[in-house]
Queue: 2 jobs
Job 1
Amino acid sequence: MFFSNKPHYAIVNDTVEASKEFKKDGLVNAVLRSVLRDKDNIQFGKFIYPSFKKIVDKVFSSNSIREYIYQTLFEKPINYQVSIKDQKDALYKKRVFLLEKKIKSNCFVQDIGNFEIIRSTISFYHDKDILDICAAPGGKSILLQSFGFKVYAIDKSQNQINKFYENLRRLKLKVNIKKIDFLKEKFLDKFNSILLDAPCSALGTFKRNPDVTKKVELAQIKKHQKTQIEILEKSLKILKKNGFLVYVVCSFHPFETIDVIDKISQKHNNIKIHNIDSEKMIKRKNGYFINPLKFKNFGGSDIFFVSVLEKK
Ligand SMILES: C[S@@+](CC[C@H](N)C(=O)[O-])C[C@H]1O[C@@H](n2cnc3c(N)ncnc32)[C@H](O)[C@@H]1O
């Protein structure tokens, strides 16, 4: 309720609805409404869940980055909107604005780190036709299109695709979207440029979704890793020789990032991992993490991992 961008009434309604299953809707309704009445007086305990802290400490060797992550955990996140065109009064790279009360007419809501991920990797795609495999609700597809790419977007979730269409309708844009389960579909064509924004634990979105920090469950992370490897393996099959694949996750867990690429490169000796030119990211084995400290003046950012793979 305190960190989400959803209206309070919607959070109360959804939670009360969900608690009907346990026949506790009356109690949940009473507690949430009492919290809302008192919300300005509620003090937060600054507790960092140990399983989250363990991963942050393992991945980020810099004290200042770790401190910054722990500090931003307890700050309300700043929201951004990204313009589909250059604008001279934008905060960042002529495209990113703060999201204040209303979304500007030619903008869509997106994290500033997400913008940096796409901006810093577009130079690798030497074919303007690009396959975006896990595309909905379309944040990255729309950005790629705004940089001049022709995007073929696929996603398996109708719910997410509906949100994608909503975004396109508002922006008066067209993207070719198909509802496809990538792991089940047989592909006849091969591609020179592929973006794979894989499903993940979303650990890197902790500012906006503090719930992800509560319990980092190894079994769940391993399940994500299995899916990530399956989708990546299949993506490499339909990537043309000398083609580029950009692997992204909004997580910094080693299992979903460095280890996924380790496992793929151990199996395929024709994969080259490329360096990325961005002073806003931290270089690690197999790829880069967004450095949230580099976005301090913008109120921080989500932490993404990105790896650029070329098929030799
Ligand atoms: C991290 S989200 C993608 C966010 C999107 N790229 C953006 O920038 O707005 C991951 C997406 O992967 C989709 N997905 C998961 N497994 C899939 C599969 N087997 N085939 C196609 N899409 C899949 C999910 O439905 C979800 O929308």
Job 2
Amino acid sequence: MITREYYSKNKEKILQKAKEYRENNKERVKEIKKAEYQRNKSKYRARYDKYFKIWLSIIIEYFGAIKCQNVGCGYNKNFAALDFHHPDAKRTEVAMFIRQKPTVGRIEELKKCKIFCRNCHAEIHYPHMDLNLLLIKENNNGK
Ligand SMILES: [Zn+2]
């Protein structure tokens, strides 16, 4: 049995061992986490919902509204159709932590983002796929 005293004296070593175990038994750790989630699904869902609602109020407070920030768009119908465009391409990170506990670090990352709907977000990342440009080029090549 690990006593509190033993733990505080050997904290670094114990944490290192635990980290090594997790790294060497990734599949097993994944199974354990999955089973744990299944056992406490409703508890986890309630926690995610609570955090998500907090995030929504943080977004409203910081951005003024939950909507596409592209001028002339302003889409605000469905949250699932909105993306967080991160200048350092960390956008998936924001999508992930939006249901986790809001921490100072996460809120700082959120503040670096711009909110775009899926359509505007795609247009920002793929300007060369603009149909007007593609069709003009095609027509010019044909003549
Ligand atoms: Zn938009």
